[in-house]
Amino acid sequence: MPGSIKIGFWNTQGYNHKQLGNKLKLQEVKNIVNKHHIFGIVETHANVNSDLHIEAFKHYTKIRDKSGLKQHGGINVYIHNRIKEGTVYVPTNNKNIIWCKLKKKIFQIPKDIFV
Fold first, then answer.
1. What is the pTM of this model?
2. Would the CA dihedral through 88, 26, 22, 65 be positive or negative?
3. Angle CA(41)–CA(115)–CA(102) in degrees, nearest 5?
4. Sheet arrangement for strand 38-42
5. CA distances from 64 to 15, 70, 106 (A)
6. pLDDT tens-digit series, residues 52-95
């Protein structure tokens, strides 16, 4: 496991852009995300058919119910494949929260850490 965990966060203001397309597929975004072990995005404005996959990452998704004609909100957490064995997804019924636990034994830390 890495000596330190790099965590990033981004408010995408919608993962899909009219001119750019899927922002998660842009090389600039991939370069930023790949510098992290854990990366969160909010305001995805995604639905169940949205492609939110990023290569080399396992992801967990919460999609908000549609409000009127548009999707609003949404949250994703990406865990790099290098550390996924040391993480556990912690289920919650809250559509605005995603929890992941970093296992103390794998990361050799005194207590589990919840992100």
1. 0.90
2. positive
3. 125
4. 7-11, 38-42, 75-80, 57-62
5. 14, 11, 33
6. 999 999 999 999 877 766 777 899 999 999 999 999 999 999 98
SS3 32: helix
Nearest alpha-carbon partner for 43 in 72, 65, 84, 18: 72
Q: How far apart are CA 26 and CA 33, in angstroms?
A: 11
Distance CA 47, CA 100 (A): 22
User: Apex CA 10: angle with CA 7 and CA 12, to 5°?
Assistant: 155
